[in-house]
Amino acid sequence: MRLTLAPLAVLAATLFVAGCVSPPEPPRPAPEPVAPPHPAPPVPPVPQGADWRDWAVTPGDWAYRSDARGSTAVFGAARADALLTLRCDRKAGMVYLSRSGAVATPLTLRTSSLAQTVPVQPSGASVAVALTPRDPLLDALAFSRGRFIVEQHGAPTLVVPAWAEVGRVIEDCRR
Predict the structure, then answer these.
(1) Across-strand partners of 152?
(2) Sign of the CA dihedral running 119, 122, 123, 126
(3) pLDDT averages per 10-residue partition of the chain, 175 residues
(4) Which residues contact 169 (CB under 8 A, 6 or more apart)?
(5) What is the sign of the dihedral through the CA atoms of 101, 105, 110 and 113?
(6) Taking a C-beta distance cutoff of 8 angstroms, is the pair 62, 73 a contact?
(7) What's the number of CA atoms in the CB half-sphere (13 Å) around residue 73?
(8) Where are the beta strands (DSSP E) in the chain?
(9) Single pTM value for the model
(10) Whether the Cβ atoms of residue 170 and residue 142 lie closer than 8 Å to each other
């Protein structure tokens, strides 16, 4: 009997191809339930530089309005309570500077030409300072180079742009 290699070659090729197929994988277990992510920790405030004139301005804008009693300039974010208000009361002959918050510690106002600490009086949900229209502090606020700051122990420091609305309220009370 003569042995041919052709059937052996076919058998070898079949075994070779069958060896290339991997066995089926066992079923994967169901994924573990994932816990909801923890909220990110609060971002610490960016440290301010040594010179307050380089600090970022508090977000917000000034808005001016006038009525029969005098005029008012308010500073703060749109559709939010004012952070700072400058009001001319013509009948009383006074300019009132008020800051939101009920912290009754004195305000320190810093401008490019003057720094002054003034006592405050509680006034509802804010504290206020009464100034005569010719007070040099008002001129310093109006003419400060770009910004002024309002500091108060127990409250965040406000870095406020020195826009025209400030000077406009002051001038309304000097007429």
Answers:
(1) 107, 155
(2) positive
(3) 63 62 70 64 61 91 94 94 96 96 92 96 93 97 95 93 96 92
(4) 64, 70, 71, 72, 73, 86, 87, 88, 95
(5) positive
(6) yes
(7) 22
(8) 61-67, 70-76, 84-89, 94-100, 107-110, 115-118, 121-123, 126-131, 147-152, 155-161
(9) 0.71
(10) yes
